[in-house]
Amino acid sequence: MNIKWEGVMPAVTTKFTDQDTLDLQMFTTNIEAQLEAGVHGIILGGTLGEASTLTDAEKSTLVKTTVDIVDNKVPVIINIAEQSTKGAINAAKKAQEDGANGLMILPPMRYKAGDRETVVYFKEVAKNTDLPIMIYNNPVDYKIEVTLDMFEELLGVDNIQAVKESTRDISNITRIKNRFNDRLKILCGVDTLALESLLMGAQGWVAGLVCAFPKETVAIYELQKAGRIKEALAIYRWFLPLLELDINPKLVQNIKLAEVATGIGTENVRAPRLPLIGDERKMVLQIIENGIKTKPVLPDYKSLVSS
């Protein structure tokens, strides 16, 4: 499957049972809600997916399960976040065996690789898989920036095709467009900059709060694509307090609480994460409850024609 690298691609949460095993029943419920809302891809094993706590066997189960659920309707992409080049290559090969359609790849974990090391890391993984690749560029959280000069080298590799743009610098989208045109597809990776990024030329949105609010998220994307900016902006302004739950160290707990409130998730997280308590929990619940109480009426966004 070729990946267009556009539209809304949820970075889905991983569902756990009370016994700390994969909750594939609730996971299926959530994925089906995403598909019904009209998302354009599913991304597994990211930060929201609690990737650092998952075993290789669990990642494999998630890929195979998701491939079965989506039934070729949208691409299934898994995040690779490994400490070694060998580990990343092995993870890419396993993902391909399990039926994944694409990869999202972070720079090496733990070791702060230099520019040359980071470029070689990405190239080595790319040449050992046929899968299309989106580079996850998040220097704020992961302390390594993939610069435009580095992308200049990386784009010599055909299956490196997209970037999850999470630098928090909105002008970086224009720099990428000016330098690479559409050779490097751009997907915004920061919920609170999503509409701005799309209006500046990003083709897609790797979204977080979509996990709990899939229809509202897709509606924003489809409305702006159709040129109905005023309507997209109204929904986005309603959404912003919720979207801010994504740019927080407790984003996993926050978003899982929101999934509970909308009936498509549970609160279970894997230790060392723990469910929210006390005033922190009350504050997050208040934001979620207010958002649900004031939810906008959505237009028939699935039938819109692009401008």
What does this molecule look like?
With 307 residues, this protein is of the alpha/beta class. It has a single domain (7-303), classed as Aldolase class I (TIM Barrel, Alpha-Beta Barrel). Helix content is 45%, strand content 11%. It is built from 12 helices and 8 strands. The protein has helices at residues 24-37, 56-70, 85-98, 115-127, 139-142, 148-154, 171-180, 194-199, 214-225, 229-243, 251-261, 278-293, and strands spanning 7-10, 42-44, 76-80, 102-105, 133-137, 160-165, 185-188, 204-207. Strand 6, helix 7 and strand 7 (185-188) form a beta-alpha-beta unit. Helix 2 (56-70) packs parallel to helix 3 (85-98). It comes from Aquimarina litoralis. This is Dihydrodipicolinate synthase family protein. Keywords: Lyase. InterPro entries: Aldolase_TIM (IPR013785), DapA-like (IPR002220).
Which strand-content bin applies to the residues? 5-15%
Give the CA-based shape.
globular
Percentage of residues in helical conformation: 40-55%
Strands side by side in the biggest sheet: 1-8-7-6-5-4-3-2
CATH domain topology: TIM Barrel
Q: Termini separation (Å)?
A: 26 Å
The biggest beta sheet is recorded as:
8 strands, parallel
Task: Extract low-pLDDT stretches.
Answer: none
Number of helical segments?
12
Structural class: alpha/beta
Q: Report the top-level CATH class.
A: Alpha Beta
SSE string, helix = H, strand = E?
A: EHEHEHEHEHHEHEHEHHHH
Number of strands: 8
Q: Domains counted in the coordinates: how many? A: 1
